[in-house]
């Protein structure tokens, strides 16, 4: 009997550009397991000479979607796997996947009914987007704030969908900050994430808030430290981080 840690052959059914450097890939899974928002899948590519490259990518889709998953992948310069995804893969192609994997950085409607604080940097928004899609699919109304840091407006992943979720009356408020320039008329923050920004975003949520942070190591550590300094217990802060961009 197969399990979620066994490799399986998934078929790519759709590709959706998110930014000039990011695409979402929809895979149909013959052995589908319901994931939890925040989990990931491993991807394995095998060359004709037997050489293998393996990477992990967060699941972007909500658990309510059955039989398939979305993986949102940023193209990393000279990356072995991400460049193959962006430059080679087409609908109908098959890829080895295994998952879902991970049990710490997860959120489920009902099990954690408290207000949510989500803090993302760059592609760190992907597992948090799964949480927001799960929240929407479950019609959850718990207050949720997303603070999302991007380099420029063109780097914001899922912008239009986030705007719709922000306006649907579900209790979600989205806060953007752009660190390397902003378009005329921009109403969001225009600096690197700092303690004052974190305090402004978290204050309305109260002391019982559950926080999930995902992004570059330096940003995540800065935000986590700010939350602790504001008095949020460490047990209410979950982090997932990645270092400087390496092979992807």
Overview in brief:
This protein is 20% helix and 33% strand. By secondary structure, it is an alpha/beta fold. The chain folds into two domains: 8-101, Elongation Factor Tu (Ef-tu), domain 3 (Beta Barrel); 116-242, Rossmann fold.
Model description:
- The protein is of the alpha/beta class and about 250 residues long.
- The protein folds into two domains: about 10-100, Elongation Factor Tu (Ef-tu), domain 3 (Beta Barrel); about 115-240, 3-Layer(aba) Sandwich (Rossmann fold), CATH 3.40.50.80.
- It is about 20% helix and about 35% strand.
- It is built from five helices and eleven strands, in the order βββββαββαβαβαβαβ.
- The strands form two sheets. The chain has a six-stranded antiparallel sheet with strand order 4-3-6-1-2-5, with helices on one face.
- The longest helix is centred in the middle third of the chain and has 13 residues, at about 125-135.
- The model is unreliable at about 245-248 (pLDDT under 50).
Keyphrases for this structure?
single chain, alpha/beta, Elongation Factor Tu (Ef-tu), domain 3, Rossmann fold, five-stranded parallel β-sheet, 5 helices, globular
């Amino acid at each position: 009997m197969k399990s979620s840690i066994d490799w399986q052959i998934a078929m790519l059914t759709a590709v959706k550009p998110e930014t000039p450097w990011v695409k979402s890939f929809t895979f149909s899974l013959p052995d589908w397991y319901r994931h939890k928002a925040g989990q990931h899948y491993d991807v394995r590519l095998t060359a004709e000479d037997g050489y293998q490259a393996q990477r992990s990518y967060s699941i972007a889709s909500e658990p309510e979607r059955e039989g398939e998953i979305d993986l949102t992948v940023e193209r990393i310069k000279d990356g072995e796997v991400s460049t193959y995804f962006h430059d080679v893969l087409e609908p109908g192609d098959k890829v080895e996947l295994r998952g879902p994997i991970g049990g710490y950085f997860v959120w489920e409607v009902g099990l954690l009914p408290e207000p949510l604080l989500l803090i993302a940097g760059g592609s760190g928004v992907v597992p948090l987007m799964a949480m927001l899609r799960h929240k929407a699919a479950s019609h959850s109304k718990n207050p949720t704030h997303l603070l999302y840091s991007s380099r420029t407006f063109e780097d914001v992943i899922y912008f239009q969908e986030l705007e719709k979720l922000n306006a649907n009356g579900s209790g979600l408020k989205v806060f953007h900050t752009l660190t390397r320039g902003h378009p005329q008329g921009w109403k969001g923050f225009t600096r690197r994430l700092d303690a004052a920004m974190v305090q402004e975003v978290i204050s309305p949520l109260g002391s019982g808030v559950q926080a999930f942070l995902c992004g570059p190591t330096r940003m995540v550590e800065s935000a986590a430290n700010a939350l602790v300094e504001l008095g949020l217990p460490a047990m209410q802060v979950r982090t997932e981080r990645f270092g400087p961009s390496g092979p992807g």
